[in-house]
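Render this sequence as a predicted structure.
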Amino acid sequence: MAQPGDEYVDPELEEIKRRKLLEMQQRMQAEEEKRRMMEAEALKRELLRKILTPKARERLANVKLVRPELAELVENQLIALAQSGRLPIPVDDDQLKEILAELASRTRRDFNIRVREK
């Protein structure tokens, strides 16, 4: 017989509550991670705005459309070099072209396509 103050615990209800709590925690973690990534991206854009001339920024934006992995590599290298003082600031379009050419030649992959006729 149930005493006053005893509560009936429904295991199914408890499982639903546990799942909802877990879902909410995962959503909050995802939002926090997204917020941190957005802050890091904003900081990166700000640093690049200080490092590159407007023309060079435009060129880098165009490269990002075509080869995002190369653009990411260049951005990270520019920031690292500027922070260590090994890069003359601002970097103009011609200097950026040289950097891009150098990195593109190092990261370029050659593809051989063979056509076999039957």
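Summary. Residues 76 and 89 are 15 Å apart (CA to CA). The helical segments are 11-51, 54-66, 68-84, 93-107.
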